[in-house]
Recover the amino acids of this structure.
């Protein structure tokens, strides 16, 4: 069990007892609870993409930022021109990214089967989130008119089918990797337990609270821990304070950016709903982040670093 | 009601069924651990005795609980918690005995005992003093407090003193054994809160309509897994270690 898993289990148990105490599970109530965690812990885990990407590369910082903004602009154009395709790309990349983050520390080399496992684990997570919270998803889709175009992807039977296929393939690929001795039997059982707990959290808890619990503890916290250890090995930081100063600038910029976006919507400069614009914003941040993290995982879990990172 | 009277177990009463099987399984396990004690080396005898005591104490309580349940149809809450107050700290003693050779101090034992008593007392208040008809806020408060004790033991077994001592022991058998017991704490002990949340006012009771009869069903299943399973793990470590010493 990793420390992230332990923290997740502890918080899940404690949250379950509190939720059963009659907590207001409306969407706005959930947003009040989850937003601070997403802003303070969620955004920082991607706030040093520049540091990780530029390491040992002869690319100027300003060029990275220009490239990053260009990528974001292209993504926004895609969302405008073909929202369904943009949404699908976002889901596929996110699925792979979540799976890669969950399993990367087990492998020194990412084989084809391991990559399949990453994708299907992530797709289990996302399809499970949508299927197990079907009613809440419908409420959100009714709330924002732009989400109407995604209804074709959110049909209950389709979600159930995709969820069942993803779960089955996740189990099969995990067993194959265990059979090939790339995972131990204990690792396999632990991963099955963790996936069961995540899906239970999605089912038992309100949509945003369940997802935030997974995203903050099992994803963002784990990634930040790995980034912190990596930067320490690389002697780019010496303490937690150094790490915080490193992640702070882009965290603040991202939060300010979201606030500006909301300000533009509020003053009718942008004719989009808050929910839809947030989806585009998250997708624009996620795609380059997933690309950078893929490189980071390939680098960190080779022989040079793996012993110190696990 | 005594054994000589005719006891009728309704065929659709899973709770009564598990009370009887639980009783027999605990008694059988106690006899097994008592007799097998003679086959292991001296340093493991105390551990096996503790395993036998855990299942024996449980067997005696199950003897009373099954009768209480058949006679009244109610949850034998007090008897249940008397049993746990004795057996759960003894499980903590098992952790201590396993890691003693690696340098575990008596302080570790006391910390585990305090955490387990905290967990049980909070659980008992939550269950026994639940107002008639159930009170969710009462159940939530004491369930939350009890969970804190559980999380402390879970941490100690997986990352804390117990895990570190097992790692430092350089004994593969002890390492594997402690890790297996840690799995019991993680999975086996987690069944109890499911039972707790079935009582009137509990979350599974109010949200999903799971009746209070499920409280004992989950507790009986969890007891069988944890008490007998826990003992079997200790037995397996003792036998493996004894064989290694003889080789």
């Amino acid at each position: 069990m990793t420390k992230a898993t332990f923290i997740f289990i502890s918080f899940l148990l404690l949250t379950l007892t509190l939720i059963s105490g009659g907590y207001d599970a409306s969407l706005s109530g959930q947003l009040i609870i989850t937003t601070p965690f997403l802003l303070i812990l969620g955004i920082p885990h991607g706030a040093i993409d520049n540091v990780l990407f530029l390491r040992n590369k002869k690319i100027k910082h300003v060029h990275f930022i220009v490239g990053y903004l260009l990528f974001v602009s292209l993504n926004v154009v895609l969302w405008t021109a073909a929202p369904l395709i943009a949404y699908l790309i976002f889901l596929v990349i996110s699925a792979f990214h979540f799976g890669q983050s969950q399993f990367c520390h087990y492998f020194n080399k990412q084989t084809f089967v391991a990559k399949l496992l990453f994708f299907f684990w992530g797709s289990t997570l996302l399809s499970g989130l949508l299927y197990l919270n079907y009613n809440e998803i419908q409420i959100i889709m009714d709330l924002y008119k732009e989400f109407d175009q995604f209804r074709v992807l959110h049909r209950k039977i389709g979600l159930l089918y995709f969820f069942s296929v993803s779960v089955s393939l996740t189990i099969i690929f995990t067993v194959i990797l265990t059979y090939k001795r790339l995972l131990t039997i204990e690792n396999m059982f632990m991963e099955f337990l963790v996936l069961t707990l995540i899906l239970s959290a999605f089912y038992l808890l309100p949509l945003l609270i369940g997802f935030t619990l997974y995203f903050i503890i099992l994803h963002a916290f784990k990634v930040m821990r790995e980034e912190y250890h990596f930067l320490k090995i690389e002697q780019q930081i010496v303490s937690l304070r150094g790490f915080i100063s490193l992640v702070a600038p882009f965290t603040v910029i991202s939060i300010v950016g979201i606030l500006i976006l909301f300000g533009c919507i509020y003053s009718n400069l942008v004719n989009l709903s808050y929910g839809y614009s947030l989806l585009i914003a998250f997708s624009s941040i996620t795609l380059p982040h997933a690309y950078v993290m893929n490189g980071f995982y390939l680098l960190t879990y080779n022989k040079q670093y793996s012993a110190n990172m696990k | 009601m005594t054994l000589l009277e005719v006891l009728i177990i309704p065929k659709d009463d899973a709770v009564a069924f598990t009370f009887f099987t639980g009783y027999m399984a605990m008694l059988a396990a106690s006899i097994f651990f008592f007799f097998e004690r003679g086959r292991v080396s001296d340093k493991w005898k105390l551990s096996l005795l503790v395993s036998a005591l855990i299942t024996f104490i449980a067997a005696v309580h199950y003897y009373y609980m099954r009768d209480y349940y058949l006679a009244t149809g109610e949850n034998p809450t007090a008897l249940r918690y008397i049993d746990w107050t004795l057996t759960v700290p003894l499980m903590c003693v098992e952790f201590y005995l396993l890691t003693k050779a690696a340098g575990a101090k008596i302080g570790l034992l006391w910390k585990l005992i305090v955490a387990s008593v905290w967990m049980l007392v909070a659980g008992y208040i939550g269950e026994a003093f639940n107002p008639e008809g159930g009170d969710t806020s009462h159940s939530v408060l004491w369930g939350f407090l009890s969970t804190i004790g559980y999380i402390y033991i879970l941490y100690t077994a997986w990352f804390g003193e117990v895990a570190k001592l097992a790692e430092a022991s350089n004994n593969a058998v002890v390492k594997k054994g402690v890790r297996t017991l840690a799995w019991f704490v993680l999975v086996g002990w987690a069944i109890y809160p499911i039972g707790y949340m079935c009582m009137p006012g509990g979350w599974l009771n109010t949200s999903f309509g799971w009746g209070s009869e499920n409280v004992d069903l989950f507790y009986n299943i969890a007891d069988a897994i944890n008490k007998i399973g826990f003992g079997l793990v200790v037995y397996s470590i003792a036998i493996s270690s004894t064989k290694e010493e003889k080789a």
The radius of gyration of chain B is 19 Å. Chain B has one domain: 14-246. The interface with chain A takes residues 136-137, 139-140, 143-144, 147-148, 150-151, 154-155, 158-159, 179, 186-187, 190, 193, 197, 202-203, 206-207 of chain B (CB under 8 Å). Residues 213-246 of chain B form the longest helix (34 residues).
